[in-house]
Here is the input.
Amino acid sequence: MIARKHRWPLTVMQVGLLAWSGAAWAAGKVYVANEGADTVSVLDAASFKALASVRVGRMPHNVQVSPDGKVAWVTNNGEADQAVNASAHQGMAKGEHTAMAKAGAVWAIDTSSNAVIVKVTVGTHPAHVVVSSDGRFAYVTNGGDNTVSVIDTSAQRVVATIPSGRFPHGIRLSPDGKQAYVANLKGGTVSVIDTASQKEVAQIPAGKGPAQVGFTANGHLAFVSLSEENAVAFIDPVARKVIRKVAVGMVPIQLYATPDSRALLVANQGTRKRPDRTISMIDLENFSVTKTVVTGAGAHGVVVDRDGRYAYVTNTYVNTVSVLDLKKRKVVASIRVGKGPNGISVTP
Here is the structure.
């Protein structure tokens, strides 16, 4: 498949790049993709206050801050006149989504100015985006194409398109950066992508409705949420096979390990008619749920800060972000954001 490229006026790109490379960025921010509002909320990680709302493309689903903290990449369905009138991610039930008919996009936000500085066209129905540790490449799952787009972040264009499993959704890079794991929502598998060759090298049978993947910081474990099994599957990254499953709440979506590799947080969304509103905390030594914390209806996205002090959870049905104190294991703040908050990321 030929990678799509989106051309923008040179003068605009030069101005954007100048602002990107020359400005310092403010640390301690949380970025939230508000799928129902076509915005990204910017939150202060210290005061738990909303700082700004950035207008982006249609139905932004996921956001990821680059490792250097300078740029926040957000997946969306392009400009308003380019997107079809469909609710692609709203009301995820039993792991199902409605595919988009036209190419989507990834936009880059300068975290120092909150200005959109780059727009790159990718495949149809883009879901999640991750950025390599050196910041050179961004990887985007295209659910409507069954592909992963690889973006050269310096050239701001797609340089490779990798076939994956059916309806790729969540994606995360291994701690050493050598592999990307992709949750194939409708394929029941996890794709393993070799980042050097930019090819899929394996598919791991996982279970029903894989939504998001991840790794412990030490690289010893991988995991995937199974939205149609109400469980998390744990994967041996060396053997590339599921070694056990742990039951969690209803329709688990995103999940994130603490920096010390000792615990895993799982956001349980449920459905719009039967919302869940909890975070399951799994002890990674004995693989058991040790605490269930109530956040808000439709707990969907979750991220942990680099110090392992706080977790931030998007509650998609009530338009809030819960701040979870991981030492106290309780919610200490609730922040109002835009409609349908989904993906979430924090500056390093």
